[in-house]
Amino acid sequence: MQVPFLDLKAAYDELAEQSEPKMLESLRSGWYILGPEVSRFEQDFARYCEVSHALGVANGLDALRLALVALDIGPGDRVLVPSNTYIATWLAVSQCGAIPVPVEPDPATHNITAEGIRAAMVSGAKAVIPVHLYGQPADMTAIMTAARDLGLKVIEDAAQAHGACWDGHRIGGAGDIVCWSFYPGKNLGALGDGGAVTTNCDTLAERLTLLRNYGSREKYRNEVAGFNSRLDPVQAAFLSVKLAVLDDWNARRAAIAARYLSELDGLGLTLPYVAARADPVWHLFVVRHPERDRLAADLAKVGIQTLVHYPIPPHAQAAYSDMSLTDEALPLAATLAREVLSLPIGPHLNAAQIDHVIQSLRQLA
Ligand SMILES: *Cc1c(COP(=O)(O)O)cnc(C)c1O
């Protein structure tokens, strides 16, 4: 039996009947940049995230870059980032001329904590970017308190956490700016690149509106040196349809996670830990195993596709060799990169496929 890691075609097929007329309407409307379709999705997404403003941008990396620029972070500034995140979190900081300062995660949740932020604090730090990694919300209550104490702005990287809740509230409005990706493989994925920023601050929303559109409110009048980073209407049309099923699809992921958590217990795998106030959306189901590569190869032999998020932490990438950060300095990021394995958990797995994953792990783990 084959178990694909994520079946994007099945996701498209389920939504085709509903979304194709809307996308066709958008294509035939003659309006191809921003406009009413994007505004409609922005309002829906803001309401979904319980936040006052959502703005569509070109991708998740741009969302982070625009957020940093909107908060006046630039050359020479330092920004605290998780040591074990996807490299986009670091690249956004570097691309603004600022310097990423790694914060080691909590080994149980894989997310950074208020204590970790305090321990990693350096002079010149202006902001922190907590990542809700794997769809597990970080402790925003404690992180906001620590950040305010330390004088840090907070940008949340919510690229993996569409619909997640911390302490009963949706991710999307706790930090100064929250950044989203609609990359096809994300829980709220588009049919190409896309992203968004959300905020409760009117001033920041205004600034981000300018920044995504050449610094321009009125055509050919440029108030600030902005970017070209906008969500396409045809993507917005698709995303509006997908947003309506997001909670249902996240619930399917949660049902698979519940089975994995109960039926894979006691096998020598370290299973994900869910914090008491967290309501995760299971973008990824990440286990740890000391013989990760052997296990992944054995699972592949029985048709089960797994992935590693992420095999090389940002500090060990060639892109960051000039920072001379060592595995010894960031032991958790280094260990997690060696041991983590992501099991299939997409919303289109059937019961037989989930059974096959569980039975196989009982033999192979
Ligand atoms: C996907 C992702 C991004 C980047 O999003 P893109 O839309 O691919 O640019 C940023 N941060 C995290 C944690 C991600 O998973």
TrEMBL record:
InterPro entries reported in the protein's UniProt record: DegT/StrS_aminotransferase, PyrdxlP-dep_Trfase, PyrdxlP-dep_Trfase_major, PyrdxlP-dep_Trfase_small
Residue ranges of the TM segments: none
Keywords: Pyridoxal phosphate
Superkingdom field: Bacteria
Pfam families for this protein: DegT_DnrJ_EryC1
Family listed: Belongs to the DegT/DnrJ/EryC1 family.
Protein's name according to its UniProt entry: Pyridoxal phosphate-dependent enzyme
Organism: Phaeobacter piscinae
